[in-house]
Amino acid sequence: MKLEGKVALITGAGRGIGSVAAEAFAREGANLVLNYGRAREGAEKLATKVRGLGVDAITIQADVSKPDEVQIDGQNGLGQVRKNRHPLQQRRRPTQSPA
User: Are 89 and 20 spatial neighbours (Cβ–Cβ below 8 Å)?
Assistant: First the structure.
């Protein structure tokens, strides 16, 4: 398993491509943090499913487009994702030069 001992944060994990990506990471041995916006039931079902593959998984509701909703600390461990604590460092987009 290529990703054993690693943690993947999957956004949109409650449905669609997020769910597919989560399963792929789990098959490679990654533990998962499954983020969802409104699809809680789907995320919870997915967590149960991937745990059956032998990985750890937690679900967390947050809008990751809003920096004040999520902070991720450190590199390892499922317990290091916290909701509603401190803002993520925002990535700045390159400014466009006037034409």
Answer: no
Ordered mean pLDDT values, 10 residues apiece, the chain (99 residues): 88 88 94 90 95 94 79 51 38 43
CA distance 26 to 44: 15
Cα–Cα distance, 97 to 29 (Å, whole number): 44
Secondary structure in 3-state letters for the chain: CCCCCCEEEECCCCCHHHHHHHHHHHHCCCEEEEEECCCHHHHHHHHHHHHCCCCCEEEEECCCCCHHHEEECCCCCHHHEEECCCCCCCCCCCCCCCC
CA distance 60 to 43: 9
Q: Domains of the chain by range and CATH?
A: 7-83 (3.40.50.720)
